[in-house]
């Protein structure tokens, strides 16, 4: 059967070789096993179910959370002469009925449906009476409440499909899977460890970069000026920001579209189409835009504000360069943006323990912005990527022209100050105390009386804060979960305090420390 799969790859899709992971996933399914495929965006997940769907007898049911994606996929399959359809709420009742009738007669080789479809007993009846080749869960992370995009309707499919009776092979495909999510998917869909194929998450054509301390509009303008013919996406966190950026860029004469959930379905569709067909080059959008959008030549993705966690960031940034060509992923960091994300968590309807998880994830996202390690490595470690990766030599940190400085002494002062302040305060006040500030808060709290007061007076308050953020990013300090980011020591603080571990930090050459100021005396 694998030979047949190879033949289909060439004959239908016009590709000569499988991409990494595809063959193994397909082999598992053709051997009658439930299988999970974890591949990066652009890795070629669609073929992983399309090829077995063509090799095996019967109808393949593909569950997808995205109506727009379904239509695109069905169009491309039908253009290859493969009988395929989708059934979702965008159709009239008559159309839905008609397609269901045809489905029960085995007309289609592929049916794409939204998870909610499984709530209908009528649909389950159709599936019972149809010979099924496989059931595939696309974007399978939506099944897990640990995923960043949990959809309860996805979860209930798991119970509903039991009603079908004799189940075919089940496949799950995702580009995002932390350990918790992977375990959840495996447990819910009874997938054995040996049938999980994880190709790793590395995207060797993406250049990650964090931009700090620059006026965001100036940066964007400077950046896009020389790229007026290239497609790019600018993600903002709020609809208001999207509207504002869109208005500004339009005024500046760029060909720009916008996309957010506050626009009508037609407006969104029109924006998406003109971006895909390259009538416009820039898409300004909230995170409502993108999942499943097949535009392979997006040359840059700029995050105007901090995303809520590394999963969302990697997925959104990963929409750049699906064609494998070099592409930029730039995050414009400003500490102010943290407040908005905290507000969103606080206002959400989540249970308290889920909120705590989200705060923690947000903190990891912030840490990512403050680390001086290779950004790609940092993310791959976060995702517990199964492979070893040397520094990418492409990202902003790998390319950074700073100076690596031994900051052990400063780190010790910061850690002792946090300890002296009983681990009850955030970086703002700790930095003030170390600077020797006479601000009201310092005087009122009598923090000018403690032994660490003024110990780092040779640095600016901003530099001290940056150092604190760096220590958090590297795990020497932690930030308490919850609304208030209180600093506390970790097990990794101990060797530093004892002088058993050296701490190095890449510093801008403009920094007082990098300039070797005589701060020792
Ligand atoms: P994903 O769903 O993993 O993000 P897609 O399935 O949309 O990725 O595939 C991304 C692109 O890669 C598509 O343009 C697809 O045609 C192409 N592709 C997939 N498999 C192969 C292959 N074996 N050889 C060459 N191109 C491929």
Radius of gyration, Cα only, in angstroms? 26 Å
Strands, total number:
17
Give start-end ranges of low-pLDDT stretches: 517-521
Shape, principal axes of CA atoms: elongated
For the largest beta-sheet, the strand count, sense and barrel status come to: 7 strands, parallel
- Average pLDDT taken over every residue: 90
Please give a quick description of this structure:
The protein is α/β, with parallel strands linked by helices. 41% of the residues lie in helices and 15% in strands. Helix 1 (2-11) crosses helix 3 and helix 13 (337-347) runs antiparallel to helix 14 (352-370).
Please, could you describe this protein's structure?
With 521 residues, the protein is of the alpha/beta class. Helix content is 41%, strand content 15%. The chain contains 21 helices and 17 strands. The strands form four sheets. It has a seven-stranded parallel sheet with strand order 3-4-2-5-6-1-7, sandwiched between helices. It is elongated and about 85 Å long. The structure holds adenosine-5'-diphosphate (ADP). Adenosine-5'-diphosphate (ADP) binds next to helix 3. Keywords: ATP-binding, DNA damage, DNA recombination, DNA repair, DNA-binding, Helicase, Hydrolase, Isomerase, Metal-binding, Nucleotide-binding, Zinc. This is DNA helicase RecQ. InterPro entries: DEAD/DEAH_box_helicase_dom (IPR011545), DNA_helicase_ATP-dep_RecQ (IPR004589), DNA_helicase_ATP-dep_RecQ_bac (IPR006293), Helicase_ATP-bd (IPR014001), Helicase_C-like (IPR001650), HRDC-like_sf (IPR010997), HRDC_dom (IPR002121), HRDC_dom_sf (IPR044876). Its EC number is 5.6.2.4. It catalyses: Couples ATP hydrolysis with the unwinding of duplex DNA by translocating in the 3'-5' direction.
């Amino acid at each position: 059967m694998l030979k047949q799969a190879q033949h289909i790859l060439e004959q239908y899709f016009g590709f000569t070789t499988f991409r990494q992971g595809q063959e193994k996933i397909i082999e598992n399914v053709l051997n009658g096993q439930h299988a999970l495929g974890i591949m990066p965006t652009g890795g070629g997940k669609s073929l992983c179910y399309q090829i077995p769907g063509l090799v095996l007898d019967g109808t393949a049911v593909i569950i997808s959370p995205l109506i727009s994606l379904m239509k695109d996929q069905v169009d491309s399959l039908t253009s290859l002469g493969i009988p395929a359809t989708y059934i979702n709420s965008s159709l009239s009742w008559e159309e839905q009925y008609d397609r269901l009738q045809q489905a029960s007669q085995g007309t289609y080789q592929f049916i794409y449906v939204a998870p909610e479809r499984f709530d209908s007993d009528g649909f389950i009846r159709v599936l019972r009476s149809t010979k099924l080749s496989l059931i595939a869960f696309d974007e399978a992370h939506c099944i897990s409440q640990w995923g960043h995009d949990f959809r309860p309707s996805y979860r209930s499919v798991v119970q509903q499909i039991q009603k079908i009776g004799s189940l075919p092979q089940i496949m799950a495909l995702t580009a995002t899977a932390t350990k918790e999510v992977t375990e959840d998917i495996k447990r819910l869909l009874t997938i054995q460890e040996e049938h999980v194929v994880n190709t790793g998450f590395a995207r060797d054509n993406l250049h990650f970069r964090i931009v700090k301390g620059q006026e965001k509009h100036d940066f964007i303008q400077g950046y896009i000026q020389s790229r007026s013919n290239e497609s790019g996406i600018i993600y903002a966190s709020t609809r208001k920001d999207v509207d504002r950026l869109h208005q500004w860029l339009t005024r500046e004469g760029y060909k720009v579209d916008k996309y957010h959930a506050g626009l009508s379905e037609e407006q969104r569709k029109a924006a998406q189409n003109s971006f895909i067909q390259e009538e416009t080059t820039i898409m300004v959008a909230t995170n409502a835009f993108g999942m499943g959008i097949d535009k392979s030549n997006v040359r840059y993705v700029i995050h105007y504000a901090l995303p809520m966690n590394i999963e969302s960031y990697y997925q959104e940034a990963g929409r750049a360069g699906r064609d494998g060509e070099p592409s930029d992923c730039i995050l414009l960091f400003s500490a102010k943006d943290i407040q908005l994300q905290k507000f969103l968590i606080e206002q959400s309807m989540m249970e308290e323990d889920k909120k705590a998880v989200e705060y923690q994830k947000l903190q990891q996202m912030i840490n990512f912005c403050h680390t001086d390690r290779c950004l790609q490595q940092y993310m791959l470690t976060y995702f517990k990527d199964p492979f070893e990766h040397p520094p990418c030599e492409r990202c902003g940190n790998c390319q950074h022209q700073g100076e690596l400085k031994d900051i052990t002494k400063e780190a010790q002062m910061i850690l002792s100050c946090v300890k002296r302040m009983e681990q009850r305060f955030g970086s703002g006040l700790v930095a003030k105390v170390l600077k020797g500030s006479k601000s009201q808060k310092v005087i009122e709290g009598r923090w000018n009386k403690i032994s660490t007061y003024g110990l780092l007076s040779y640095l600016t308050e901003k530099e001290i804060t940056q150092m604190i953020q760096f220590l958090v990013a590297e795990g020497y300090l932690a930030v308490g979960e919850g609304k208030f980011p209180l600093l506390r020591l970790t097990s990794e603080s101990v060797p530093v305090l004892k002088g058993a571990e050296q701490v190095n930090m890449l510093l801008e050459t403009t920094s007082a420390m990098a300039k070797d100021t005589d701060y020792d005396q």
